[in-house]
Structure formats: structure tokens, C-alpha cells
Amino acid sequence: MSKDDAEPSYIDYEAFLDPDFSATSFANTLVLSTNNPSDTPLDLSTPLSRVLFDVQEVDTHIDTLTTKSALPLLEHTREHADSSARILHEVEGQVASLTESYRTLEKEVIERYEVAAQVQLTAERLCETVKLGRAVARCLMLGRQLEVRMAELGGVGSAKKEDHRAMVRSTDTILSLRQILSASKPGEEGEGLDRINAINTLKAELVNPGERSIASRANQVIKEFSMSSLLSSSATASSASTFSQNEDTKARTTSALQTLYLL
């Protein structure tokens, strides 16, 4: 509305529309302008009545403007509503497209990833199980081999002739078992074997007693060699049987020394 078309008004609209307008300062100025500073008490009814009159004047002015400009205001409101509807329609279409894309992504990627993660976990556990099963099978095979080789040792209390070389073979099997059982760190061959009852039984009932038995047998052979050396040094006979016995004693002693060295 131009200044020529505007109705005359004593209200200073520019002061009220100023960004720096302060209601406190305006009220203070109004009270001072309607009262004598020396009067006590202050008269607040006059400034209050003026403020109420100004509010009524503004309300009347708003009503007049809206009445005269009803059609432009309604047209502006309709255009604003139409624009909002168009924007909402476009936004809803984009949201629907985005929602459909997310559902497709969830179905083709997220769900498949979850299934793949479960398959991966299953495969990893199967690999661990197979690896542990192989280690257990190898330990049991070596345990059986140790039993056979210790039986080949023969000797005292056995009808079989002593095979002193079986001490070295048994020791080699024990070392192989030791190597597997000691490799218990993550990723190594013997990881998890300490949780298998069969392996713990194998260690307690075969490996450890067998190692002690072989070490004791080797020490006994070395002691017998020491005694036979003393006896042979004092003897004067040099028959073929004595030579054969000495060679056999040396061979047994060599096997015993190798056994103790390996253990």
C-alpha cells in the first residue's frame, strides 16, 4: 500500500518495526512523557490507556487492510498452498523412490551379507574342527606307533629279544608327539588339543610313562656298559663270543646315548 492510499495514523510504525526496538525503553519513555518526574506516586493509568488505545488502533488498521485486500490475500494464500502441495508431491515421490531403493539394497546386500557372515562363521568353525581332528588323529597314530615301538624294545620281562634300536625309534615318536602338543598357540597345529580328553589320556597313560621308561632303560644300558668295560679290562680271554658281546654292548650303549641326547 502506498503512502497516498494509507489512512493517516499517529502511530509510529517504523519505530515498532525497528530491529533495535526495546519494549522496556518504549514503556519508560511513555511513562516519563505522561508524568511529571517530581510527582509521587506515578500515574500509570494514562500510559496504560494509551497503550491499549494504540493496540486497538493497530487491530482496527489490520482489519481495514485485510478487508480491502481480501482477494489479493486469498490469492496469495491459494498460491502458497498450491506451491506447498506441489513441493509435497515431489518430496513424497523422492521419498518413495528412496525407500524402494533402500528396500532393494537391504534385500540384495544387507540380508545377503548377514547370510554370508553366517556361512563364513560356519566355514571357519568347520575348518577349526577339521584342523583339530587332524591333529588328534595324528597324535593317536603316533601314540599307537609308540606302543608298537616300545613293544619292539623287548628286554626284561619279555620273551622277545631286546631290540636296542627301538629306543631311538620310540624316542623319535615321543619327540614328534612333543612337537605337536607344545604347538598350542593360536594358529599352530596343536591349538585346542589340551581340551581333548583322549589326548590328555594319551599323555598321562602313554607318552609320559613311556618317556620315563625309555630314559630309565637307556640309563640302565649305560651303567651296564660301564660295568662290562671294567670286567673286560681285567679279563685276558679274547674269544669270538667275547668280541661279539662287546660289539653288541657298544651298539646298545650307542642307542642309549642317542636316546638320552634326544630326550
TrEMBL record:
Residues of the Conserved oligomeric Golgi complex subunit 5 N-terminal domain: 14-146
Pfam families: COG5_N
Coiled coil: none
UniProt GO BP: intra-Golgi vesicle-mediated transport
Signal peptide (UniProt feature, chain positions): none
Top-level taxon of origin: Eukaryota
Record GO cellular component, one term: Golgi transport complex
PANTHER family, sorted: CONSERVED OLIGOMERIC GOLGI COMPLEX COMPONENT 5 (PTHR13228), CONSERVED OLIGOMERIC GOLGI COMPLEX SUBUNIT 5 (PTHR13228:SF3)
Protein name as it appears in the record: Conserved oligomeric Golgi complex subunit 5 N-terminal domain-containing protein
Originating organism: Cochliobolus heterostrophus (strain C5 / ATCC 48332 / race O) (Southern corn leaf blight fungus)
Lineage of source species: Eukaryota, Fungi, Dikarya, Ascomycota, Pezizomycotina
